[in-house]
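INFO batch 0412 | record 1 of 1 | parsing
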Amino acid sequence: MLSAEYIKSVSAELGFSACGTCKAEKMNKSNSDYVKRFIAEGRNGEMDYLSRNMDMRFNPEKLVEGTKSIISVALNYYPARKMNAKEYTFSYYAYGKDYHTVVKQRLFELFNRLKKSCEGNEKELEGRAFCDTAPVSERYWAWRAGVGFIGKNTLLIIPHKGSFFFLGELFVNAEVDKYDEPLKNYCGNCTKCIDACPGNAIFEPYNLDARKCLSYLTIESRKELPAGTENKMDNCIYGCDRCQSACPHNNFATPTDVIEFAPSEELFEMKREDWDSLTEEEYRKLFKGSAVKRAKYSGLMRNINAVNKKKSK
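INFO prediction complete | emitting tokens
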């Protein structure tokens, strides 16, 4: 059996901002029904991977046989220095190195430390680390593990810390001596995230249509941007942070000390004319090891052209 106190102590040493644990049980019906409805209504857009392996998404034991507990962690990415709003800008999460790698490296270290603490036990500790790379409902498990609550913008919010966090999980084959309890919701009557969404993607509290979300349109979608999208983008050519920036809980956001998430000087030195004339080779060099590669060169230039289209009107 793993010690919850030890898990949280090691996670803090590794730089995680929050950590919690819960039993690896089937997702409750209300949440699984929400996911099914989201897919049935086509709100996932081109993200077909969200509709696959539903049995694994709803049941951790189906994804990793023998899983008894889920350890959920959060890693702060809020930047100390921000891009000039008068130039092209990016969603904060894309400023530094690819979060998948950064979070997983720390999760591997956490797992190794936990495994070492179990040496001599009859049953060896086994498990897998995840960070947005498998059919894992990360925000759900973070909520179940008491890390935060899911806000009206559908993002996980950590009380007194905000929502600018990457999430990660360890699925392990051992129980924990004391599991955390889910947090209650602290959104109250606030609708600032809904009011701030430029695409009206948050069509009602806790319900999002990705097909209208600028983050989806500028990153995940491979199609041409819908007509009029350029009027909603402002100068942001990759992603959108407006529902988060409007959230009062993010008044508590503090700059990350994760070195890997610090933006490069090359990124901050880029001027509008540099972006407009960006070659594919320059793109590869500038975003080597970055999450921006998700949109591909063609997608980024599509976004730049859209903002320029608005400027030329």
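INFO post-check: The chain has a mean pLDDT of 95.
INFO record closed
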